[in-house]
Specification:
Helix 1 packs across helix 4. It is elongated and about 60 Å long. With 112 residues, it is α+β, with helices and mostly antiparallel strands. It has one domain: Arc Repressor Mutant, subunit A (Orthogonal Bundle). 67% of the residues lie in helices and 12% in strands. The chain has a three-stranded antiparallel beta sheet. A hairpin with a 7-residue loop joins strand 2 and strand 3. It comes from Cellulomonas denverensis.
Length: 112
């Protein structure tokens, strides 16, 4: 993953993780696996776990400890109402930016 992709991903990863949790509750390793399955191969588990701590501290998710077959209980994250509000704002911002960038890209393409 290039530097530009890494920087853009930093700014959007919280929204991406909240979108994943809007589909279903998950624990950190599941989220990392889903991201890698979508082509985000370079995302480290530590990055996802640090983000989960931040969104938990912000009150955007509820956390339950669920027994694990292998080792200690897992922390399962579920998006809550505050998280859904944050996700709605993320998607509004994403649409705004995407529309402007698409328009700029079309203009730039016409100039070539």
């Amino acid at each position: 993953m290039g530097k530009q992709m890494t920087e853009m991903l930093k700014g959007t990863l919280e929204g991406i993780v909240l979108a994943i949790l809007a589909v279903r509750p998950a624990y950190g390793y599941e989220i990392t696996g889903w991201l890698r399955g979508q082509g985000f191969d370079d995302i480290a588990e530590g990055t996802v776990y640090a983000l989960l701590v931040r969104i938990e501290n912000k009150g955007l998710v509820d956390v339950a400890k669920v027994p694990s077959e292998k080792g200690p209980p897992r922390k399962v994250y579920t998006i809550n109402d505050s998280g859904r509000d944050q996700l709605d704002e993320f998607w509004q911002t994403w649409r705004f930016l995407a529309e402007r960038l698409d328009g700029l890209h079309r203009i730039e393409g016409e100039q070539r």
